[in-house]
Amino acid sequence: MHYPETPETASKYALSALKRMKEEGIAANPRNFTIWCEYFAGKNDNLKKSVDALKAEHKAISETDYHDLYDRFISAGAASARDQKLSDQIEVVTERIIAAMSATGEGTEQFGEALQEFSGGIQKADNIDQIRGMVSDIIEETETMDERSRALQQQVQESASEISSLRQELRDSRRDALTDGLTGVANRKCFDQSLYQAIGYALESGDSLSLVFADLDHFKAFNDTHGHQLGDQVLKLVGKTLHDLVKGKDTAARYGGEEFAIILPDTTSGGATAVAENIRKSVASKRIVKKGSDDSIGNITMSMGVTSYQTGDSAAEFVERADQALYLAKKLGRNRVVCEDKKPEIAAVGG
User: Fold this and answer.
1) Do residues 189 and 126 lie in contact, with contact meaning Cβ atoms separated by under 8 Å?
2) What is the DSSP string of 61-109?
3) Helices (H) then strands (E): counts for the chain
4) Which pLDDT tens digit goes with each residue over 56-73?
5) What is the pLDDT of residues 14-31, one digit of tens each?
6) Catalytic: which of 8, 117, 162, 258?
7) 258 counts as catalytic
């Protein structure tokens, strides 16, 4: 993130951010402060639109929403800057290797010229002392070349190790940029990318593609009753459950807030319903306890909607149909899986 504003303008944004956080009744921590500074700076259009949409829908932005906003619109930009910095470092080290090899190449050429001169000198030598002198010279040239070769080998090994380390950092940075910081599953950015790729593959191959939308039941009330810290622990628990149960080409992601999504390539609606039901049962079986004690709070349940891709669907239409199936699951009583292509009385599972 770059802030080229004058001190006066930056102070104006900071004061506006502090005033808004006080009005919202939220902690003035670095995360929340950064979000509101970016909001008032007006240069992050997507962040501003998301904040305005949340305010219009809920009037108050939850702690979970702040986590999501920071991951999507602040961390992602920082990750991009880190990626560029690491790429630049790799380029510098690579140029260092090329320069070293070029310098050694010049030394090799000089060594070859010395050998040619030695060969010609041998033929013209009049006595053994002249030959001994030339042998001494060529031994010295050989030792110099050997030292250069060893130095190059060491430099190349060190640089190769540095490049390997930088590349791993770059892979880790790119992975982190696509991972939800709280739950450990894919984030919204990764979900969007994976969904477009999955749709493209389904259109090309003709294979099935299904999508599951899941939402924690009564999560706002849970947060209001037990606090956001425990709410975050529940979200982490759901994330771990998804990580354990969603494998292979499938993608489990945090779509936003307490809503999750699962992309299931090569999977029919029936198979997706079975996967969703397995996840629903697993989450419902977990006992929620207060951190640092064994006091049981009860269980958390999830409502889930399932749909399959239909040729001609846009990504938005595909998501909308999964969301409608989720809405129906909640309407039918929550803690259940509803598949869009089944009749509600057959599709409602569990509960």
Assistant:
1) no
2) --HHHHHHHIIIIIIHHHHHHHHHHHHHHHHHHHHHHHHHHHHHHHHHH
3) 12, 7
4) 776 678 877 887 787 777
5) 788 888 888 888 887 777
6) 258
7) yes
